[in-house]
């Protein structure tokens, strides 16, 4: 077996691991990254990027169908749009290939050695790597610092394991056809992003959610426009409903459910997408040998991403919520800095979250409810997109921007928005919080016309009591 020695060993080449690798390489830290599948991890291969590609394709198809149905107020008509799903998937795969190839090239450019294979931890300084498809390890790597970045895996329902008709987001992102009837379990990020896309591609979609509303992590006002849009699209919601199991005794797959009043029923399904959360990937690669302190299912880390073992670090989904790519990247960059000798802490003022439903949702910092719970006295104000010219021109007036600021000094502590294309507002929201902006700063900044950004300025103006366009 080949033996390699390195300063930094990174296990997992997702957004957390590969960014840590690039940064460590830039800083001259000798680095090896071990990846069992493709560089880019969940995000680039089977998560963020392919899901957004499928959502875009579904949007375009849905738009074309509205032209054919002559329902578009724009006066555009067309006839008989079709979708060749093989080409759609090939297009999506092309984007993934370009991006994952780019990650490989960036690692190489920065002098990071990429070892393909699955790492098994022997101790806090040593791993063995087994190539995919092989039963024997071929490389042993010894390191000074070990960075754990193995990501997460979908949660499986014990009575409805993945396989056959029951799929996870991974299979849903490489469809071989559009199922006639899709049952989605879970109205969270994945269930609603992909459920909406499948509906737009032509499937009959029923979403079963245990909580009494969709996207239970967000406040009720914020999800209202999404719920209305789902109703208009014809997505059926079964809220406050439990999934009990599957029934396919006569060859027809059915999902057994029970509603809040205890009534049981069956939903016919050609596919069942289970999207009830993800859990840190902690099993099957010798992690237990390190006996690290845990925080629930995640590895416990401090504000430098140090685990309970010296020079063993953990980042990204493996280190728990929020399981978002940009948080993993920020942690990875920071750990590389620290390993190179810099003084850093992971203490962002806010981490943005975007849900790519239609309309989209952006959440940064505190909601009014969060502020209330934290005992912070705040001023909040909404500006509706129905009063924004740009929103009208892109046919997306259902939604609003909301600002949350401390009453005492007008310092902005949170932004929320729901509306078409609002994901692009996330950067400005996060910058304003990170830079400690006050309402007056945003209200006094000239925002380009006509843009959705004007609703951001107007929300701040409204909080100060003098909105101009409402
Ligand atoms: P991962 O990206 O999971 O990478 C971990 C890597 O480690 C994998 O490549 C895996 O093969 C490798 N690995 C694991 N164990 C070993 C081992 N023993 N040896 C070698 N390699 C190993 N987040 C967003 O911010 N925005 C989005 O729009 C978004 N959309 C998503 C859509 C879907 C459908 C899904 C599933 C997730 C989405 N996410 C999104 C979440 C995002 O993908 C994750 O938060 C992010 O990928 C976490 O990065 P990571 O580096 O921690 O882990
Ligand atoms: P999620 O936590 O967003 O949603 C899971 C939903 O399933 C919740 O609403 C929950 O109440 C419901 N649920 C749980 N058990 C259930 C059951 N037995 N029956 C019915 N409903 C049940 O999880 P997800 O959608 O699987 O996504 C996983 C993670 O991936 C997210 O938390 C997020 O971190 C990440 N992600 C992010 C994005 C994005 O940033 N745009 C997109 C997709 C995924």
Summed up:
This protein has 470 residues and is α/β, with parallel strands linked by helices.
Your description of this structure?
Its cofactor is FAD. With 470 residues, the protein is α/β, with parallel strands linked by helices. It folds into 3 domains: 174 residues, FAD/NAD(P)-binding domain (3-Layer(bba) Sandwich); 108 residues, FAD/NAD(P)-binding domain (3-Layer(bba) Sandwich); 111 residues, FAD/NAD-linked reductase, C-terminal dimerisation domain (Enolase-like, domain 1). The protein is built from 13 helices and 24 strands. Strands 1, 2, 3, 4, 5, 6 and 19 form a 7-stranded mixed β-sheet that branches. Helix 6 links the parallel strand 9 and strand 10. Helix 1 runs parallel beside helix 8. The longest helix has 25 residues. The protein is globular. Bound molecules: flavin-adenine dinucleotide (FAD) and nicotinamide-adenine-dinucleotide. Flavin-adenine dinucleotide binds next to helix 1, strand 2, helix 2, helix 3 and strand 4.
Q: Evaluate the radius of gyration.
A: 24 Å
Compute the number of structural domains.
3
The computed structural class is: alpha/beta
Identify low-pLDDT runs. Answer: none
- Give the name of the CATH superfamily of the largest domain: FAD/NAD(P)-binding domain
Number of strands: 24
**What ligand molecules are bound, each kind once?**
flavin-adenine dinucleotide, nicotinamide-adenine-dinucleotide
Mean pLDDT: 97
CATH class type of the largest domain: Alpha Beta
What percentage of the residues does DSSP assign to strands (E)? Answer: 25-35%
Distance between the termini: 71 Å
Helix content: 25-40%
- Molecular shape: globular
Examine the secondary-structure arrangement and name the CATH architecture of the largest domain: 3-Layer(bba) Sandwich
Q: What fold name stands as the CATH topology of the largest domain?
A: FAD/NAD(P)-binding domain
- Which oligomerization state do the chains in this entry correspond to? single chain
Please tally the helical runs, counting DSSP H or I stretches of 4 or more residues: 13
Domain FAD/NAD(P)-binding: 8-332
GO molecular function: dihydrolipoyl dehydrogenase (NADH) activity; flavin adenine dinucleotide binding
Domain Pyridine nucleotide-disulphide oxidoreductase dimerisation: 351-460
Family: Belongs to the class-I pyridine nucleotide-disulfide oxidoreductase family.
